[in-house]
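Here is an idea for our session: we take a single protein and study its fold together. To get us started, please write out a protein record for me. Once you have written the record down, we can walk along the chain together.
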Amino acid sequence: MTQDYRRFLLPEEISRIAKLEVRARTIVEGFLSGLHRSPYFGQSVEFVQHREYTPGDDYRRIDWKVWSKTDKYYIKQYEEDTNLRTTLLVDVSESMQFGSGSLSKYEYACTIAASLTYLLLRQQDAVGMVTFDDQVRSQVPLRSKRNHLHAILSALDFSKPQKKTDMYSIMEQTAKAQSRRGMIVLISDLFAPREGLFRGLRMLRHRGHDVLVFHVLDDQELDFNFTGTTKFEGMEESGELVCDPRSLRDGYLEAVRKYLEEVRRYCANHVIDYQTIRTSEHLDAALAHFMNHRIGMRSSVRQ
């Protein structure tokens, strides 16, 4: 394993993203080590039930309204909340190797994962990660210590793009492994059968997770500005094609437009935050746009 993983977290990137805050809709409430629903001064704000008072209990937690009605002492019990728990799902399949600019989709995805890890650990939140193609390639458990960043970066550097993608299987394994609700961040080019992708996203939402999708695509995949006779090589056992790309451009762009619209609509209908990101886009701008979108959606839910 090489030791150049630090290329995914450059000092200039850190300075730009440090002002961003990762907020999870529905589980965000209050301010403590980041803006999340968290215990205040050691006590959670989420009421669960009453139990009868016993000697030694903190009398300040007695529910006096209940006492006035029953003439008995009852204690308020609260759910024991923790800070945000985020699992990053990073696609390392062969199609992620493509890149027409300075960064391949894989390198850009790694940069997103590294930046989110930095932000979350800075807020004392727990972060874990799974890299995958048609199976899990590396798995980093949830931790909240600052030095956990090195484990994430090392796993990203070790994972090399290969093979096809099996979205549903990976998300199913993730759903089974996460017994508590949290945030799941999928970073991928989404080059996978739609049925499996949508089933997996729906399953994560049904389990109560807050789901984010970073759809990473190269400029050429979105614009198709190839000229002259070109040989296209499939990166996931999809064969080769020699043609004049100008004759395909209109049909290709229409197919891409329909696909992106289908994914956007599906995510919107299932309350999943989705963002298409170009690998030519500055990372801080992409993250700022995405987080601002989440804050706006959270405000609309509260109204």
